[in-house]
Specification:
Blueprint (H helix, E strand, L loop, with lengths): L5 H10 L9 H4 L2 H10 L9 H4 L2 H10 L9 H4 L2 H10 L20 H8 L4 H4 L2 H5 L1
Length: 134
């Protein structure tokens, strides 16, 4: 079956990342296949296996490719400071996908992105004078 043929699926996701949706479960858990899909379209990470979406090391690689893929990491990783920082370094818009647990811990390392990132912060965070003035 073609959806289980790694060579075919790799070529397909290189053309259309979201075609990962139709790959076999085994290939949705294959790091090489998923990374190729994410390179083409960050939204394709939604079709990766739960295991890959919870694999911190792999998620770090994914958000380095495209920070917006943070939206499809598991809840724990969307609240992980290191993962969120990496995603925001690549794409400030990724803060919109961070867990609600991501709060006042806007790291100093992201000062460059802070202004843009605050656009996507919660109303509570935007209203916090201490955070805005930091």
């Amino acid at each position: 079956e073609l959806k289980a043929d790694k060579e075919v699926v790799l070529e397909t996701v290189r053309q259309c990342g979201c075609s990962l949706e139709h790959a076999s479960e085994e290939l949705k858990a294959d790091k090489e296949v998923v990374m190729e899909a994410v390179k083409q379209d960050s939204n394709s990470f939604r079709y990766a296996s739960d295991e890959l979406q919870a694999d911190k090391e792999f998620v770090m690689e994914v958000v380095r490719q495209n920070g917006r893929a943070l939206a499809y990491a598991n809840d724990e990783l969307r609240a992980d400071r290191e993962v969120v920082m990496e995603a925001m370094t690549q794409n400030a818009w990724s803060l919109r996908s961070a867990s609600d647990k991501w709060d006042r811990m806007m790291p100093d390392e992201l000062v460059y992105h802070k202004c843009r990132a605050l656009l996507f912060a919660s109303d509570e965070l935007k209203a916090d004078k201490e955070v805005v003035l930091e």
